[in-house]
Amino acid sequence: MKTNSVTRGLAATGLAVGALAAWTPAASAASAVPEPIDVSFTADCPGFDAELRASGKLGVINLPGDRQFFTAPDLEISVTGPGDSLSYVITGVVMVQNLSDGGQFVTATGPNLITVPKANGHPAGLYYTTGTVSWTLDKKGREVGGMFTGSGTVTDVCAAIS
């Protein structure tokens, strides 16, 4: 995995990813056909709350084998912190495989914004990922086996807007 602009060490100590993507508040309203969304919310960063605004389209497709496929064509998101504001087009795909033990195996491909809660000894954060990254969550939403894995690139958005 390549790491880009990550100032607080993405060491093999683990990284919790408690939400699938920054637009999770709207995900429950999504359908198989991507529908328009326009939502504002906050996400935790070390020492401050980031303000996020997402607009575009979001869809959730239920697949065989107890899997979901989250798609976001033309989804734009702005992230504002105390020092800077950044905008991303996050048109990647997140696929969730529900595991028999109640956990989830998650794979994100393309450009995505992933929220990370404060858990398991590391601070909360926001990460922009490109390429392919994966992680596993147990049935309580805690990471299993450490941080993002895969050949993708991970950028610490909280550090960039602080």
Secondary-structure blueprint:
Layout (H helix, E strand, L loop, with lengths): L1 E3 L19 H4 L7 E11 L2 E16 L3 E5 L4 E5 L4 E5 L3 E6 L5 E6 L2 E5 L8 E6 L1 E6 L5 E7 L3 E4 H5 L1
Parallel strand pairs: 1-13
Antiparallel strand pairs: 2-3, 3-4, 3-5, 4-7, 5-6, 7-8, 8-11, 9-10, 10-13, 11-12
Discrete helix count: 2
Q: CA-to-CA gap between the ends? A: 24 Å
Structural class: mainly beta
Taking the sheet with the most strands, its summary is: 9 strands, antiparallel
What is the mean pLDDT? 79
Helix content: under 10%
Produce a short descriptive summary:
This protein has 162 residues and is mainly β. It has helices at residues 24-27, 157-161, and strands at 2-4, 35-45, 48-63, 67-71, 76-80, 85-89, 93-98, 104-109, 112-116, 125-130, 132-137, 143-149, 153-156.
Give an overview in words.
The chain is mainly β and 162 residues long. Helices cover 6% and strands 52% of the residues. The chain has helices at 24-27, 157-161; strands spanning 2-4, 35-45, 48-63, 67-71, 76-80, 85-89, 93-98, 104-109, 112-116, 125-130, 132-137, 143-149, 153-156. Strands 2, 3, 4, 5, 6, 7, 8, 11 and 12 form a 9-stranded antiparallel β-sheet that branches. A 4-stranded mixed β-sheet has the order 1-13-10-9. Residues 1-30 have low confidence and may be disordered.
Keyword list:
single chain; 162 residues; mainly beta; 9-stranded antiparallel sheet; 4-stranded mixed sheet; 2 helices; 6% helix; globular
